[in-house]
Specification:
Layout lengths: L5 E8 L8 E8 L2 E7 L4 E2 L8 E6 L2 H5 L4 E5 L5 H4 L2 H8 L3 E3 L1 H12 L9 E3 L5 E4 L2 E8 L6 E8 L2 E5 L17 H10 L3 E5 L12 H14 L4 E4 L5 H13 L3 E5 L1 H12 L10 E2 L11 E5 L9 H6 L13 E4 L8 H13 L3 E3 L14 H11 L3 E5 L3 H13 L4 E2 L6 E6 L4 E5 L4 E5 L2 E4 L3 H12 L1 E8 L10 E5 L11 H15 L2 H4 L2 H20 L4 E8 L1
The structure holds zinc ion (2 copies).
The site of one zinc ion has 5 residues, from loops.
Length: 556
Amino acid sequence: MAKPEELVFAPLGGVGEIGMNLSIYGLGNRQQRAWLAIDLGVSFGDEEHLPGIDLIMPDIRFLEKERKNLMGLVLTHAHEDHFGAIIDLWPKLQCKIYATKFSAALFEAKCASERNPPKIPVTVVPSGGRVELGPFTVEFIPVAHSIPESHALAIHTAVGTVLHTGDWKIDPTPLVGPPTDEKRLRELGDAGVIALIGDSTNAVRDGRSPSETEVAQTITELVKAAKGRVAVTTFASNVARIRAVAEAARQSGREVVLVGRAMERVAQVARETGHLDGVQEFRSAEYYGHFPPEKVLALCTGSQGEPRAALARIANDDHPLVTLNKSDTVIFSSRTIPGNEKAVGRIINGLITMGIKVLTDRDALVHVSGHPRRDELRDMISWVRPQLLIPVHGEALHLSEHASLARAAGVPNVMVIKNGDMVRLAPGAPGVIAQVQSGRLYKDGAILEDSKSRAVVERRRLAFAGCAVIALAVTAQGELADDPQIELIGIPPKTRGGDELDDIVYEAIVSTVENLPKARRRDSDAVAEAVRRTARATINEHWGKKTMVAVQVLVV
Ligand SMILES: [Zn+2]
Ligand SMILES: [Zn+2]
């Protein structure tokens, strides 16, 4: 007799952290399950802890093994933390991808901008539509967020329906696209929802998020009042904000000039998919200088202080086409993501030093988040009335705040879990039943590395304490054939007393080799290890830091 089917859920990224979202749902039993993957995103590395790592991605070894049973990858929306890992990881899965029009078009444009554009097909599903993937029927429910066409997914199965909210907020006037589909969510609640897997990003914030329309009004007032040139920076993918800025420009008799490739790419995709219908044409950056200062508005990338993006280059007076002067205005229509404060601060300080007026969300309502605050989370729970709530998309604090809110709102079961926990959602009492392999991959230049690999750890040590490279030639009898060669990289050349450090290291290693017993001296590995220890100890004694030491022993 066949075992009863169970529905399981496991996050492989995005829980206990913000970024690299990947969730999987499985239907079947322990021997055999059909799988559904939701989103495949990245996190961004930080220079200090992960030097040279630009992107972090979820470990997908589990899905690779289950490739034959993977029915598809469904995208909630086109933010990098939800779709940024596809280009790198899809070749390992080769599964079908499903998304609505805007997400698919933005993905295609992203692929086209790669050096070797990959061919990754995406099946377009209409917003509000459904797709059948093996035993899962996935329904795309429109929600408001900070990018067009964000969707909550209702996953209908033989054992019940789950609501995977994706990123969402409640905004009755979102400027782009329909508001969150309360009616459909209530209908799902009426029919019964076994689990809600929900966005926790703003679970620590009371009240409700302001509407995109209020932000648009503020921006219009600020742009109207501005003398001279105006530059506005925001996330390129925030098409509602692009619309708001365009409207502010129109009302103030200014032309919109797009500065930065990501801004141009998103604007083009948004035009093609109808999200900029009725909005005036934009100009490319070459036209910036053609307009008098009070007739132009530059819409720039670089709100997070990215050093190569438009705003940083403008602030450094390093942009070939776009300049700002004293008494021009820069509006940061954005929030600084934790970790980017220093980079953004440098740009703001640079602009202020140039005499430019800088406006941020501290000064006026020029930005709102795309995630639900506490009253919105309560609304979602009251519409959907889930049997179980699992907070995702947040760090530990956000998850636990979302969980206690859900308990207080009367959700019968609430579970805070970790990446890799496999939860049985139904039938029966929910619980963690297994562990799925999970972890992180680093994009290191063109190479994908396991996060446990030595390269990054070594680079961090190199950055802090340099490296000594030592080469020795020894005879078969174990005598030094020539003077050891020493190179100190990233290490001060002289001690506090003014002595040459490489001379001191030289003396120490020569005497180490000479003091080794004859038999050991013929073993080149033993010589290398002894020299390495001596060099490290000697440098530490004089410098106070434990450097890396590389020793080459050549037997001649
Ligand atoms: Zn998002
Ligand atoms: Zn997100």
